[in-house]
Amino acid sequence: MAEGATPRRSRITPEREAELYEAVLDLLREVGYDALTMDAVAARTKSSKATLYRQWGGKAQLVVKALRHGKPGHADEIDTGSLRGDLHALVALEDDCTMERNSALMRGVAMAMHHNEDLRQAFREQVIDPEMGGFGQVMRRAVERGEVREDCPALEFMLHMMVGGFATRALLDDQPPTRAFLTSYIDAVVLPALGVSPH
User: What is the pLDDT of residues 85-107, one digit of tens each?
Assistant: First the structure.
């Protein structure tokens, strides 16, 4: 490299990254995962396709990073001093409008995962495993505080219960999940299953 020449930046700025992720999520809402192409992302974000591949490796990784980036917070960042408080605080991270948009988005991605192994693997590594780790931390604190018995059989189904309430709201009731629904669900189903008083 010539003296005084500046090296090419290998990383994009956090602002630019956030902008790219938002564009990816918009495209995902518009056309769905299968019809989304790296060409379309490049055109929408005025990026080169080569840059996108260099930074993310492929469509699955880019989409999952965008989904992960769009999450307002993570379970392991919340500690209110009680399990009920932690779960309610987690639900309160998103307003109803955002929750509805994200619910539709996640349903589309879940469908696409059935026939896209690379998407399924990226989603597991970057979303499911970290979420399970975060929930594990919330539950360990609840056990340490004496709120939940260590041998409670419902502990291992904690994430299943939370995801189930979120996912089946649209399926069974033809309604988007809302804060009110999820907090009621936590108090009526999740906490009793764990042996915790909802009051």
Answer: 999 999 998 888 888 888 878 88
- As a whole number of angstroms, the distance between CA 133 and CA 75 comes to 9
Q: In the block, which residue shows the tokens 């505080």?
A: 145
The single residue listed with the structure tokens 């604190």 is 141
How is residue 192 written in tokens? 């009793």
Angle, helices 59-69/38-45, rounded to nearest 10 degrees: 50
Q: How many whole angstroms separate alpha carbon 46 and alpha carbon 63?
A: 17
Query: pLDDT tens digit string along 152-167?
Result: 999 999 888 988 888 8
Q: Report yes or no: 112 and 32 within 8 Å, Cβ to Cβ.
A: yes
**65-77 tens-digit pLDDT:** 998 886 766 677 8
Q: Could you give the C-alpha distances from 144 to 58, 91, 139, 149, in angstroms and in order? A: 42, 23, 9, 9
